[in-house]
Amino acid sequence: MSNIVDKLNTLNINYELVEHPAIYTIEEMNSLNLTNSEKIAKNLFIRDDKKRNYYLIVAKEDRQINLKELRTLINSRPLSFCSEKDLKKYLDLEKGAVTPLGVINNEDNNVQVLIDSYFKNSIIGVHPNVNTSTIFLESSNLVAVIEDCGNEVNYIEFVS
C-alpha cells in the first residue's frame, strides 16, 4: 500500500484512505456501511482466449458484467476471467485485492483499464493493492495515476 500512497503524494493527488477489516467481495464491502459506499467499484481481471490482451474492468458495484456483451463492446476475442496465477504475474495482487491501482506493478504495461462511465467526473473508491483499506479519489485522478504508470485507460459505457 505504501507505494500507492507514495505515488499519489508524488502526483499531488488528493485522496481519502479508509482502513477496514479484510474484505473479499463487494457484498462484504457493502456490509461495512462506509461513507460514499455507492462510489466503491468492483474490479474484474479478464483476458482474451489467446492470452494476448488483459483487461481490468472497474465497474459500478451493481453492474452485471456479461463477457459476451463486453467482448462486442471492446471489439475483443472471447473473454474469460484470469487465474489467480495471472493476477499475481501481471498485477502482483492477491484474490480479493483486485484494483486498477495494481497497474503500478505491471512493468510491461500490458493491462488495459476499462472504467465504467458511471464514475466519470465522480469520486471512486478502490483498494490500494490490499483489501484492508479503500482509497477514495476523483476518477480523473485515478486515470492520471494509471496513465503515469504507462497503462492504457478508457471509460466504457456498460449496457446493463
Main sheet attributes: strand count, strand direction, barrel closure: 5 strands, mixed
Q: Which structural class is indicated by helix and strand composition?
A: alpha/beta
**Helical percent range?**
25-40%
- Percent of sequence in beta strands: 25-35%
Rg, alpha carbons: 14 Å
Which of globular, elongated, flat, extended, rod-shaped describes the shape? globular
> H/E order of the elements?
HEHEEHEHEEEHE
Continuous helix count: 5
Which blocks of ≥5 consecutive residues have pLDDT under 50? none
Mean pLDDT rating: 93
Q: How many distinct beta strands?
A: 8
Give the strand line-up of the largest sheet. Answer: 4-2-3-5-8
Distance between the termini: 32 Å
Would you kindly provide a brief summary of this structure?
The chain is an alpha/beta fold and 160 residues long.
Write structural notes for this entry.
This protein is of the alpha/beta class and 160 residues long. It contains 5 helices and 8 strands; from the N terminus they run αβαββαβαβββαβ. It has helices at residues 2-10, 26-31, 67-74, 84-91, 139-149, and strands at 16-19, 41-48, 54-60, 79-81, 111-116, 123-126, 133-138, 153-156. The strands form 2 sheets. A 5-stranded mixed beta sheet has the order 4-2-3-5-8. A 3-stranded antiparallel beta sheet has the order 1-7-6. 36% of the residues are buried. The model has no long low-confidence stretch (mean pLDDT 93).
